[in-house]
Every structure is written in structure tokens, then in C-alpha cells.
Specification:
Layout: E1 11-15, H1 20-36, E2 39-46, H2 52-67, E3 72-76, H3 85-101, E4 106-108, H4 113-125, E5 142-143, H5 151-161, H6 177-192, H7 196-220, E6 224-227, E7 230-234, H8 239-253, H9 261-270, E8 278-281, E9 284-289, E10 292-297, E11 306-307, E12 315-316, E13 319-324, E14 334-340, E15 349-351, E16 358-360, E17 366-368, H10 369-375, E18 388-391, E19 394-398, E20 402-403, E21 416-422
Parallel strand pairs: 1-2, 1-4, 2-3, 4-5, 16-19
Antiparallel strand pairs: 6-7, 7-10, 8-9, 9-10, 11-15, 12-13, 13-21, 14-21, 15-18, 16-17, 18-19, 19-20
Helix pairs in contact: 4-6, 4-7, 7-8, 8-9
Length: 428
């Protein structure tokens, strides 16, 4: 059914739900493990969505693995919150990561050709570009040995070898889009065009080859850069290449899989806008800056504040900085600002930018803080993260940029403090 030679001498952990497909995969790999020197184990994830039925399925898997002496890792979803398809998928991936941490070389899932075809049709119907039509692909640690097998071939193997399995009732409903495609679209398509599933999978493979080529172009041209302050897309007039770089940034780096063609088109058009123009989508914001687009995850406006005199630690509301009485060596990309501690009023606070803030520059000259940031070319996407020491609307220290004239060190200064944080004036 599957050529396992490519997995020879690896430690493979099979993700098993108890359903027909995963049981077929586990059974087949167990039957051929010795032949290829494979060290076999399994894992089971109980999402606790179907109550006793889920627990029964896990017990079934446990009994099967025990009978064949297959080591089994068992995970239960204990986290709170609303359980969605996406959150369940992320949780499963975290379980797979734990299996790798425990010594497995690869985690194998039972995705097959029909699953692959469903994914391609689903993405195509949603308006995906070619990059979304590559189907289900392997990663460095996650493999799909059955990806070239059809559901019919798996069913035949199960019958011929008497493989036991349990049915998940949710697979037989049309409550989910994928189930509607599985039960209605693919059967009709196969009826109209025999071997449609295999043809769609072949197309997905060709699309994946094309995407590898474009990935290489993106890397060679350095179009995509990951920074602590956002994902940067360098200017690229060639739409076919830019679209792939943008999709890669949104999907892989920012974890947004429900982006649309119009989102990518808007990102492309943003390149030709004036600097400072922005575009919001999917709880992300893209900013046009000099020669690039920067995409960041939206952060809610933070109106928290902390009394300067009582601040301790290295983090305030997600912004990392340190206040020290003795200057420490700054790290790469950090800046230390020295100021006269006695000139900081007792009711001064640490906070972020607010409407009406004013700043008197070192050496004199007062401006609205927003105008000052503009003069200093501090990108708009960063301004809400810059730590400030403030006395009412009067800003005394702009972290990583400059101190005000009112707190400068003189010959009368007795105690110096340092605010050490990212050098915001150097981030372009």
C-alpha cells in the first residue's frame, strides 16, 4: 500500500484517533516496521469534545496498542475556552511537538489522497491563489505516508486485513464544510470524471513544485524579513512574486490561513501608496514605509500606567525595558538613556503614548509627541509600544529615543538612573 523505504531506520510515532484511516496506517506500519528498521510508537489525542464517545475511542486505541506492544502516548485537552476546529488543530500540533521532544524522528498522520483533494477544492472555492492549492504537504517532522492512497484503497486494505476501527459520528454529518465536500462534491466529481481525486492530487504536487521555485526566489531577493517588530515585505513590482511573498508572510509567519485574494491585492497596492498609509485585515495592520510593507498583529490600545517610583522588573504591558541605577552594557539594538532621578516628580508614571502628550527635546523646543515621533522617523506601528516616563501630559523620557531637557544631567546631579530598551530611533 505504501513504500516505507524513505522512512527506514527512523523512530516514527503514528497519530491514531481510532478511525479507519489512522488504524489502517498503524496496522500497516506495524506489519512492516521490522522490514524497514522502523521503531514504531503511537499517540492519541482526546479532544474531550464528544464526551464518553471520545474516551471510548481512546480506550479502544489503548487496547489495540497494548495488544501489539506498541508504545502509546496519550493526551487529554485540559485547556479552557471555546473549542474550535482551528484551536483543536493547534492543540494536536502541540501534542505532535511533544512526541518529537520525547524522541520520535517523525509524527505520521493518516491524511490520504481524498483528504488532499478536499483541501485543494476547499481552498480553490474560497478564492485561494496557486500557493493555496499545493494541498497537504510534509514538513521536517510531520509526514503523511498515505497521501497517495485513495479512500477506496484504504477501505480495501482494512477489509482484507481485518483491521478494527471505530467510527466518529461527526464524520457522517454535513455540519462542516469539509464533510459537505467529502460527501457531496467529490463523489459527484469522481462520477463525472473518473480518477478526479488522483488528478487533483497530481495538480497539487505540480503546484507545490512551482511554490518551491518561488520560495527560492523570495529568499534570494530577500523579499521577506522577520523582525521582533513585524514582518517586512520588500518592495517588489512583479505581482506574481510579491503575492507569494505576502501570502507566505500572512500564512506562515502570522498564522492567518483565512486570508483572501483581495487581502493580497490590497497589500500589493499598498506598495504604491504614500509612506504612513495603512491597511487593516484579520486583526493585522500593514503599514507602508520607505521601500517596504510592514505587517504587525494588532495590539489593543494600552492605557495602563505604573508609578515610576515603584516600578520593578523588565516588562510593562508587553514592552521590555529596564530602569537601573548603574548602567549595564546595552544589548544589540538597545539604547541606554541617562537622566537625573531627582528631577522625576514623585507622582510620575511609566506608560505609553496618549493624546495631548508633549515633549521638550534635549536642548529645548517643545512639540506634540506625535510630531516629535514624525521628526524622528519613528514608524507609526511602533509608537504605541515606546515606554514613556510622564508627568501628566508632559513626557520626561522617551524610551530608546531621547530624554527631555527637564531631566538632563548636570554638575549638580547626585543620582543617575538609566532607562534601557530597544533603540526605537534605529528601527527603520
Amino acid at each position: 500500500m505504501v513504500n516505507l523505504a524513505q522512512y527506514a531506520h527512523l523512530k516514527i510515532c503514528v497519530a491514531v484517533s481510532g478511525g479507519r484511516d489512522s488504524m489502517a496506517l498503524l496496522h500497516y506500519m506495524h506489519a512492516h516496521a521490522d522490514e524497514y528498521g522502523i521503531t514504531l510508537s503511537a499517540l492519541n489525542c482526546d479532544h474531550k469534545i464528544r464526551g464518553k464517545a471520545s474516551a471510548d475511542d481512546s480506550a479502544f486505541v489503548g487496547k489495540f496498542c497494548a495488544a501489539l506492544e506498541i508504545p502509546l502516548m496519550f493526551f487529554e485537552w485540559e485547556c479552557g475556552g471555546i473549542k474550535t476546529e482551528e484551536s483543536a488543530r493547534q492543540w494536536r500540533l502541540s501534542c505532535y511537538a511533544k512526541a518529537i521532544e520525547s524522541g520520535a524522528d517523525r509524527v505520521a498522520t493518516a491524511h490520504h489522497a481524498n483528504d488532499n483533494a478536499e483541501t485543494v477544492i476547499f481552498n480553490l472555492a474560497r478564492g485561494s491563489a496557486l500557493s493555496g492549492l499545493t494541498g497537504i504537504t510534509d514538513s521536517s517532522t510531520l509526514i503523511r505516508p498515505l497521501i497517495n492512497c485513495t479512500r477506496a484503497q484504504i477501505n480495501e486494505y482494512v477489509v482484507q486485513n481485518g483491521v478494527p476501527y471505530v467510527d466518529d459520528g461527526t464524520n457522517f454529518t454535513d455540519n462542516y464544510t469539509r464533510n459537505k465536500i467529502r460527501h457531496n462534491v467529490l463523489p459527484q466529481l469522481e462520477n463525472a470524471v473518473p480518477s478526479a481525486v488522483k488528478s487533483i492530487c497530481r495538480f497539487a504536487g505540480l503546484a507545490a513544485d512551482d511554490e518551491k521555485y518561488f520560495d527560492r526566489l523570495i529568499a534570494e531577493r530577500r523579499l521577506l524579513k522577520v523582525t521582533p517588530y513585524g514582518i517586512e515585505l520588500a518592495y517588489c513590482e512583479e505581482k506574481v512574486i510579491f503575492r507569494r511573498a505576502a501570502a507566505k508572510a500572512v500564512r506562515e509567519q502570522l498564522g492567518k490561513k483565512d486570508y483572501t485574494h483581495s487581502h493580497i491585492e490590497n497589500l500589493y497596492a499598498l506598495q504604491f501608496s504614500r509612506n504612513g498609509k495603512k491597511f487593516g485585515f484579520l486583526n493585522l495592520t500593514a503599514y507602508k514605509e520607505e521601500g517596504k510593507i510592514v505587517i504587525t498583529a494588532d495590539k489593543p490600545y494600552c492605557d495602563k500606567e505604573c508609578a515610576f517610583c515603584s516600578f520593578e522588573g523588565e516588562n510593562f504591558a508587553g514592552s521590555k525595558f529596564i530602569i537601573k541605577t548603574d548602567r549595564l552594557p546595552s544589548g544589540v539594538g538597545e539604547k541606554a538613556l541617562a537622566f537625573d532621578k531627582a528631577k522625576i516628580p514623585p507622582d510620575a508614571v511609566i506608560r505609553f503614548m496618549r493624546r495631548g502628550d508633549e515633549f521638550t527635546k534635549f536642548g529645548g523646543g517643545t512639540k506634540k509627541l506625535g510630531d516629535y515621533f514624525t521628526d524622528k522617523k519613528i514608524p507609526a506601528r511602533l509608537r504605541g509600544s515606546v515606554p514613556l516616563i510622564a508627568d501628566g501630559s508632559k513626557i520626561l523620557v522617551v524610551g530608546g529615543v531621547e530624554i527631555s531637557d527637564g531631566v538632563k544631567i548636570t554638575e549638580r546631579t547626585e543620582k543617575i538612573n538609566y532607562l534601557i530598551c530597544a533603540d526605537y530611533s534605529a528601527i527603520k
